[in-house]
């Protein structure tokens, strides 16, 4: 496919890198010539220097024969204008835009072909706040991802000495929990992937990715580590768009405080939120944290736009006794440096946004794409179509499907007369048409193979 990406920032650059490695024709547009030059030297893409919404610049990028436009500049208005121009002048089939301002997002009727023609709207703030809210539901999880509308979840946990399954083979899990069906999709041991087998012995320190029905997640987690008590008291550092969205989601279930530097923003937050306590000050102010009993805080969330401020306030909160610390980090180079030390979870908005974008630019009927381990691995939800004659997966047992090396099917969600049925992917399960199949890829470079596997032959049409 030919894909024109507007904006060479963290999201645009990462997306270009991901898509170029899948043999797409990528052109990246940005007004920063130095950034474009650095990206072009590193990856095989075309670049155009200029204003992203100007028609002549878009023409230089080859917009006339583009399949997809992805507008992810830092300016909402530029992204919206570019989609309008791509539709009105060049009839680009699919237009994806990042829009941050909630003022626009609360009017979904704005974004259709009769108004501003955007086919897919991406809101990083919304994606990140939803992601953090899922983490709050499962204390002790490093990552929680939804599939099939939340009926199935992929959860990442760190196996801890003393967990019932630690030191035992994975097959022991089924014996120990006969009424709970789950599947371990992958294990990372000392940062190296292991494809799990029944005789794989789990070790303390293993990063375990498992898939289960939403209702069974907590039971499976209890096999890998001692269950943590639910969270009650939450402190959010930063009352920006993410902090506000998250507080709105959490304030009716938790005791929430927001620390915000701007007095004007504090006034706004107090008008928008009903049960959240708004504190004017700096999250790096030790006296303020102590006054607010940081030692009794269950979760400290650093969500400002400043990576360094987030890291420093998180380290301070942890030293002063906060039970769990989650930190928003935009710079990908910092994520590996800080996670797993005093900072419990480093949250990358780019990784969340990239996964959502990839869902809409991949071939095949992709419902969800989640980018994992800084983009090295992926979890995909794809719908199987066709029949035994036209499909390479429909009508086959899972053990007979020609999956690429490092890929495994974790679960299937099937619609029945009685509602949705969640099937763990055991070898004898047969894939049916319209099944939602959840595939885990240790090596995301195998994504193309999975796309081809689920494509339907011409006989189907």
TrEMBL record:
Location of the RCK C-terminal domain: 142-226, 367-456
Gene3D superfamilies: NAD(P)-binding Rossmann-like Domain, Regulator of K+ conductance, C-terminal domain
Superkingdom of source: Bacteria
Residue span(s) of domain RCK N-terminal: 1-122, 231-347
PROSITE patterns found in the cross-reference section: RCK_C, RCK_N
SUPFAM superfamilies: NAD(P)-binding Rossmann-fold domains, TrkA C-terminal domain-like
Annotated keywords: Ion transport, NAD, Potassium, Potassium transport, Transport
A Pfam family this chain is assigned to: TrkA_C
Name this protein carries in UniProt: Trk system potassium uptake protein TrkA
Annotated organism of origin: Microbulbifer variabilis
């Amino acid at each position: 496919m030919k894909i024109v990406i507007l904006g060479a920032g963290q999201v645009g650059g990462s997306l270009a890198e991901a898509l170029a490695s899948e043999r797409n024709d990528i052109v990246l547009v940005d007004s920063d010539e130095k950034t474009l030059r650095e990206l072009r030297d590193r990856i095989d893409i075309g670049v155009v220097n200029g204003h992203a919404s100007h028609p002549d610049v878009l023409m230089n990028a080859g917009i006339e024969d583009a399949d997809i436009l992805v507008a992810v500049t830092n300016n909402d208005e530029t992204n919206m204008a570019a989609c309008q121009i791509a539709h009105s002048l060049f009839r680009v089939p699919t237009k994806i835009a990042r829009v941050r301002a909630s003022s626009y997002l609360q009017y979904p009727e704005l974004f259709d072909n009769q108004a501003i023609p955007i086919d897919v709207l991406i809101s990083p703030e919304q994606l990140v706040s939803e992601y953090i809210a899922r983490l709050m539901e499962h204390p002790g999880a490093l990552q929680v991802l939804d599939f099939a509308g939340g009926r199935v979840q992929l959860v990442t946990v760190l196996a801890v000495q003393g967990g019932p399954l630690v030191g035992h083979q994975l097959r022991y899990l089924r014996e120990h929990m006969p009424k709970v069906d789950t599947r371990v999709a992958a294990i990372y041991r000392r940062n190296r992937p292991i494809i799990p087998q029944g005789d794989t012995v789990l070790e303390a320190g293993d990063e375990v990715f498992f898939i289960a029905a939403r209702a069974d997640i907590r039971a499976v987690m209890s096999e890998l580590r001692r269950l943590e008590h639910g969270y009650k008291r939450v402190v959010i550092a930063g009352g920006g768009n993410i902090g506000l969205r998250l507080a709105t989601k959490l304030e009716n279930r938790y005791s929430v405080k927001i620390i915000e530097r701007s007095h004007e923003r504090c006034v706004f937050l107090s008008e928008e939120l009903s049960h959240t306590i708004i504190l004017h000050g700096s999250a790096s102010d030790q006296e303020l944290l102590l006054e607010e009993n940081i030692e009794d805080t269950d979760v400290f969330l650093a969500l400002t736009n400043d990576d360094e401020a987030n890291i420093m306030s998180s380290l301070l909160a942890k030293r002063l006794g906060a039970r769990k610390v989650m930190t928003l980090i935009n710079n990908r180079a910092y994520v590996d440096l800080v996670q797993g030390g005093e900072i419990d979870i480093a949250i990358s908005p780019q990784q969340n946004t990239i996964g959502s974008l990839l869902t809409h630019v991949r071939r095949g009927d992709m419902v969800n794409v989640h980018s994992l381990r800084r983009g090295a691995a992926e979890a995909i939800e794809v719908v199987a179509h066709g029949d035994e004659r036209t499909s390479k997966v429909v009508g086959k047992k899972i053990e007979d499907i020609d999956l690429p090396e490092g890929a495994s099917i974790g679960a299937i969600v099937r619609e029945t007369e009685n509602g949705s049925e969640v099937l763990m992917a055991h070898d004898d399960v047969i894939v049916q048409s319209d099944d939602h199949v959840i595939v885990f890829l240790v090596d995301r470079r195998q994504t193309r193979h999975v796309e081809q596997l689920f494509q339907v032959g011409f006989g189907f049409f």
